[in-house]
Amino acid sequence: MPSFRTPRLPSPQVLRRGPLREGAFRGHLHDERTASLIGTALGIAFATAFLTGLISHELQHPASWFPLPTRPVWFYRATQGLHVASGTAAVPLLVAMLWTVYPKLFA
Q: For 103, what's the count of Cα atoms within 13 Å in the CB-facing half-sphere?
């Protein structure tokens, strides 16, 4: 007759894998300084996109009480280019920010 033994389970430290184990996120990418620098860049990019969006809206639908200059003619083109560039730059900055602060979700 075969003998049936229940196997012993490993300790919780051995079972802990992925982002929950101790020391899973080492390096400068998950540092507070990196998070603050990326957050500052993300804030600047978002604020620039927001302000140029407001300027664009005001130039397309002008209020009678707030006249904006129509000259130089390249002003609208420059604000649109800045709006698109800063909005596009905000997407990878947001992803980098989420990657940087990801370990703090498990702390």
A: 15
